[in-house]
């Protein structure tokens, strides 16, 4: 069965992984976000209890 022979695809997989890990990934991670999150103050609005008509 040729699919069990790791000789052709194992090398390609390892080279692809190494290319992604050492070359492509650092370049992608070095970009800065164009829309960075802002430091907004979180305001909690006071809630009023619900008045049930049957109580």
Can you describe this structure in just a few lines?
The protein is mainly alpha-helical and 55 residues long. It is 42% helix and 0% strand.
Question: Could you characterize the architecture of this molecule?
Answer:
The structure is a single chain. This protein has one helix spanning 7-29. With 55 residues, it is mainly alpha-helical.
Based on the model shown, name its key terms.
single chain, mainly alpha, 55 residues, elongated, 42% helix, 1 helix
Structural class: mainly alpha
Overall form? elongated
**Terminal CA distance:** 76 Å
Q: How helix-rich are the residues, as a percent range?
A: 40-55%
User: Spans with pLDDT under 50 lasting ≥5 residues?
Assistant: none
What string gives the helices and strands in order? H
Residue-averaged pLDDT: 80
Note the beta-strand portion.
under 5%
The number of helical elements comes to 1
């Amino acid at each position: 069965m040729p699919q069990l022979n790791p000789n052709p695809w194992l090398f390609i997989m390892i080279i692809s992984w190494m290319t992604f890990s050492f070359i492509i990934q650092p370049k992608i991670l070095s970009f800065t976000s164009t829309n960075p999150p802002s430091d907004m103050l979180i305001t909690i609005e006071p809630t009023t209890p619900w008045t049930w008509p049957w109580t």
